[in-house]
C-alpha cells in the first residue's frame, strides 16, 4: 500500500532519464531539537530496526554492561562479518564467561562481499557469529550476566533485559514504544516515530561526557570500522 503522506526523497537517473523515484519521510533537527528540514510525515510510526542499536546499547550500559571503545561500537553495529568482528564478539562473550553457543541470533553469512565469498568458497555455512547483529546479541548476553538476569530467553519481550530496552527507547525517543515485533536477528524491536528517533540520536550526541549516551556516541565515532566494516574507513 502506498503511503500518500510520503514525498519524493531520491531519484535514480539512467541515460538521462529518471528511472525510478523513491518516496519516504525525513526530518532533521538542529541542536535545540527544532526541525530544520521536513519531508513527508516525520510523525509516522516506524520500526527503526538496526538504527535502534545505539539506543539499545544505552539501555545495556545502564543495566551494567561494562564495554567501551571498539567492543561497545561492535555492540551497536551491523558489521560486515570480518575476522576482527568475529573475534570481537568472542571477546565480549568471553568477558562474560560465555561462548558463541549462547548466541540466539539467526545465522547468516557475512555482509562483506569479500569475506562472504571467501567463506562460501571454503565451505563455511551461515553462522550466528558472522551474522551482522552478533555484536548486539553478545552484548545482550553480557548485560544479562552483569545484571544477574538469566541468559536463557534473553530475546523474549518479557525478559528483564528487553523490558529495560523498551523503557530506554521510550525515554530517549519520547515515544511510547507501543508496538513490538521481531527483528531479522530474532531480537524484539520496538516502535518509534522518525522525529523521536532523531531526538534520540541528538541526546546521544549532546550528552555529557561519561554518560551511557555519550559513551555510545564516542565509541561509534572513534571506531567506524567496528560499526560497519573496513569499507567504513577506506577511501572511495
From TrEMBL:
Superkingdom, taxonomy of origin: Bacteria
Protein name: Asparaginase
